[in-house]
Amino acid sequence: MDSIDITYFGQTVSFPNLPRYRKFYARLEAGAWEPATFEVLRQNIDDVTTYVDVGGWIGATPFWAAGLARQVIVVEPDPVCLEILKHYAPRYPNLTLLDGALATNREVELHGVDEFGSSESSLLESGDGQATRVKGLRVAEIMRPAGPGPVFVKIDIEGYEYAAAKEIARFAEYDLRGVQLAVHPQLLEKTLPGGFLRRRLRTTLATWRLGRIFSGKLGVARPRHYGSLLGYCLFGVLLRRVPKHTDFVFLASREPSR
After folding, report:
1. What is the CATH number of the domain that holds 144?
2. What is the pTM of this model?
3. Which residues pair with 53 in a beta bridge?
4. Which of 103, 112, 149, 152 is spaced 20 to 30 Å from 139 by Cα?
C-alpha cells in the first residue's frame, strides 16, 4: 500500500496515499480537522492510560494516540477502513485492533454512504449505499485486552450512540478517566417515524438522556460550543431547523496522572 506521512498536532502518522482522502489530509496537516478533539485527548491520555477508540476510521486519532497512551484499543467495522487499519497497526506494538461494531447483538448490519471507507458508515439505516453484516461487540469484549489503570474512551458511531446508550454506559464499570462521545441528533431524527414535531421532541429527549449517561460517575456532559446540556438540547437540537451534531465530553474530577 502506497503511503504518505502526515504530521499533525506534534506527531507523524502514515496513511494510504489515496485521492479520496487528500482533502482530509490537507485539513489534518493544517491543524484544521477537529483540533478540539486532539486537545481533549492530549489532556487526558498519558503513559498509564488505556485509550479506547470506538469508530477508528482510517487511524487519525488511534495512531496519533498510540504515541501517548500506555495502550490503544481500536474498534472499527467498515471493511475498507479495517483493511487500512490492519495494514498500519503493526507499526504500533501498544495497539489492539478489533474487527466489529459496538452493539448488543452478536451480528449487525453496517450501512455505507454511497460506498464504504468514508467516516459516515453507520449501523443506522440512514445510508443509501452498500450494506454488510458485521460482528457486534459489547463493552466487556472491547475492554478485554485492557489491563489495569485509567481508561479514556472516544466514541464516534454516526448516530448509533442513541441505540447503544445502555451498552455505552457500561464503560462506567471501569476506571474511567473520561469519555468523548460524538452526538448526531440529525441522523437519529431521520430514522424516527411520525411527523416533524414528534420526531423532534423524541430526538431532543433522547439527546438529554444521552448527555446524562455518565451522571453517576463523570457528571453531566459538557457539549462542545454550548454552555450546558440544557442549552445544547434547546438551541442545538429543539429550536434549530436541522439539529446540529456536537461532542459530549465527560471528565472525571481528578487530575490526569503525569
Report:
1. 3.40.50.150
2. 0.95
3. 74, 154
4. 112
